[in-house]
């Protein structure tokens, strides 16, 4: 008997159901758990208070990233450089202690493998296709780029996973985002996902797991797929998926924690079954024409506030419903923008290249290729590059990218989350603008009063050179 | 967490849409290693505006918050739920929530009630006039002193957990045998899945 055609999401879900309660809530097995310092201390403390052990410590990987300063972490003698903020220091120390206390593998602040959890997971082969991956961080959606069901969880759920290696979940609805055609030259994965968020809206994916389908995604590198899936949460979807294929297998082959030898062959044989069957039904379908995607940039304080770089700041009156008009007025007021201004006339004082969205080697190469032989404009006060991991940093230095950034007037930093969320000292001052390759342009996200314009690494580099938002295609 | 059956009292007429978790509690407050005291940082950027509802004496200690679409979007930080709880809020009424936030709310004994925008508009009026609102989880209804009566849906498992103040970890630990069987069922065919992570 032929089984019912299933979506990729249904296949991964079905494969992880431990049992389903009468009310439909399922106990879902979790294959991989990433832990960082910010959302875990209360979970470890709760385990301690209840005397509960970690069920499968080897399936959790702990890495500090959010709070770490991106300046030097060891002095010339190899001693730890003290962290100025006592609260940050205490939180980092808590993870450094909790991980070994509970038998969990810990990558330390100065290890070459340290980095943003969502960069480290794929890089180490910890994240694998067809697995369930969680982390107390909403950008866990990134790992969907490998064909994993990956999503962010709260601290109570972190505790739940540590204690039981499972989560209690209701099945989500499935949404297909199908992109037809190919992207034009100069248009990147970041531009595409920003465009998609603009089309479906910041809440458009609520209650859904998105599967991205179409030739565009098949032709993308793994790093580009990670960028796309990363921002699924910005459309409200807890997870985004792209079916794993040869590109993914090639990427994972030989990674430290990936299967080896005969195990590798078995794994790949299984991974090849991980695709949506012909005839499988999605609860919702959205079709995007790739030809409509331009290099994109945000103007407001929600990732859905996105326009093509050639467009103008929209008028609030151009929106159909009153609540959106009111939101736009508020956003423009916060952003200090006047409707009708050309996006390319907006000056920027700060440039941030980094974050779990865009801090991998291809991102740095893209930015460096624009910056090569050029300098940041005089009005750009602060420009930093924060590699996603120590390994990305090493690779970039081997390729000489650090020199290009330094020569262009950028600072070359140690890996971490940095100015994406303004937890560590890397913040954008009140009232100033930042052209940022991160994922959120929320009010105060990069620091109180900071004004964020989201864009791709190449576009951030172009903005640095011009001193205002700019179309990278006009520089090359 | 504390059990919850009814929440009655004044409601903060906030009403804003797409309220993200950075608005609910900015990152600066996430450096704590405890769950307590986050109310002080709650809605910091909103409270910087003169005349905001959160600092209006009329709503001090109000146990209900009225919000717009997509409340709690953005990050997975449970600090957002802890901050709201620390303000004394036990029920939120909004047309929709982000998936992660609503889960975090329930796990902390906060009831996220979903009602259509028309109902929210009416409740905003009632709250703005300073009248009390009643949220009853048992009967799944929201009522006002003016005969307004709105029914809401809630996932039965979430309702059960809220009504009894259940600890989900303890609940799942009762199913350890089933989890062990699941792990056993994958041994052999999926050994490759865990070899690479062995410590």
From TrEMBL, chain A:
Pfam families (alphabetical): Aconitase
Protein's UniProt keywords contain Iron-sulfur: yes
Alphabetic keyword roster: 4Fe-4S, Amino-acid biosynthesis, Branched-chain amino acid biosynthesis, Iron, Iron-sulfur, Leucine biosynthesis, Lyase, Metal-binding
CC cofactor: [4Fe-4S] cluster
Catalytic function, reaction form: (2R,3S)-3-isopropylmalate = (2S)-2-isopropylmalate
Pathway: Amino-acid biosynthesis; L-leucine biosynthesis; L-leucine from 3-methyl-2-oxobutanoate: step 2/4
A Gene Ontology molecular function term of the record: 3-isopropylmalate dehydratase activity
Binding annotation for [4Fe-4S] cluster: 356, 417, 420
Cofactor-binding details, from the entry: Binds 1 [4Fe-4S] cluster per subunit.
Magnesium as UniProt keyword: no
Name of the top EC class for this enzyme: lyase
Enzyme Commission number(s): 4.2.1.33
Domain Aconitase/3-isopropylmalate dehydratase large subunit alpha/beta/alpha, first and last residues per copy: 10-467
Family: Belongs to the aconitase/IPM isomerase family. LeuC type 1 subfamily.
HAMAP family to which the protein is assigned, alphabetical: LeuC_type1
Function (record text): Catalyzes the isomerization between 2-isopropylmalate and 3-isopropylmalate, via the formation of 2-isopropylmaleate.
Assembly notes: Heterodimer of LeuC and LeuD.
Protein name in the entry: 3-isopropylmalate dehydratase large subunit
Gene: leuC
From TrEMBL, chain B:
Family: Belongs to the LeuD family. LeuD type 1 subfamily.
Catalytic activity: (2R,3S)-3-isopropylmalate = (2S)-2-isopropylmalate
Naturally occurring in which organism (per UniProt): Erythrobacter rubeus
Keywords carried by this UniProt record: Amino-acid biosynthesis, Branched-chain amino acid biosynthesis, Leucine biosynthesis, Lyase
Mitochondrion listed as a keyword: no
Signal peptide: none
PANTHER family: 3-ISOPROPYLMALATE DEHYDRATASE SMALL SUBUNIT, 3-ISOPROPYLMALATE DEHYDRATASE SMALL SUBUNIT 2-RELATED-RELATED
UniProt-recorded name of the protein: 3-isopropylmalate dehydratase small subunit
Pathway in which this enzyme or protein is active: Amino-acid biosynthesis; L-leucine biosynthesis; L-leucine from 3-methyl-2-oxobutanoate: step 2/4
